[in-house]
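In this supplementary section we document a worked example of the pipeline. Step one takes a protein sequence of length 290 as its only input; no multiple sequence alignment statistics are reported here. Step two produces a three-dimensional model, which step three serialises into structure tokens for compact storage. The input and output of this example are shown verbatim.
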Amino acid sequence: MPVTHVIPLDRETLHGHFSSDLAPVLTVDPGDSVTFQALAAFWHWDAGARWLDDLHPVLDDGHPLTGPIAVRGARAGGTLEVRIDVVRPRDWGITFAGESALEWQLDGSIGVTADGAQSVALAPFLGVIGLPPPEPGVHSTIPPRRFGGNIDCKELTAGATLLLPIGVDGALLSAGDGHAAQGDGEVSGTAIECPLDEVRLTLDLRPDLDLRMPVARTDSAWISFGFDHDLDVAADMALETMLDLMQGEHGLDRERALALASVSVDLRVTQIVNEAKGVHAVLRHDALSA
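The serialised model returned by step three reads:
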């Protein structure tokens, strides 16, 4: 039977980089779930104060991530399925723009600025869900990669499923970076950055899928991702992965898939601020009918 594992918010379960050398804090079976709390991107639990005062200048230089979590049977070259079940923020958040900071009070589905002047609808998600690359050494949490990481896609709310190419045996999933709301582009460099009272992810393996880049499925659409320093290259990567999906899902040849993509697939800028820019291609489930 699938099991739900609890990972405590603890110094030993947090890190600020990706590396295949990190020992897993937990090993789970495919189909198991994990639940944990998450610090805000700047290592804050409460507003205005870091949760830790012993951060390593290199190993904790990035987002505070929970993990790594190993999955039994995961092998390099395979695909990890991450079902996002719960993402529940605490009651505060913050957005930075240049030297300014906009503080937020979070209450259920609404975020209100501290001065009460503006409010926005909340749609919380994890900015970072990823696996280490196979190359040895310490890898920053800032740029997204083929193996996921700082994807910053606002569509990855509770109910979505993210599919990641696996770079190392065991997969070694790490996750964190709570966002209460974000626009496509994340143009100031931050969303509503917030700690999370509860995250629950269900992990599984997908031996039927061979992905060139990450893919997600939501209630309304398939989403494919591309990441590169060049936005044009990122767009090409997202499109090529979407064409792979369309061929597999609808039994199309490549040119027919491209023609149909031209009238049914939307390309959106995920973010432009994380060194490697992001583009996601969106194909709604109802876009193509027999």
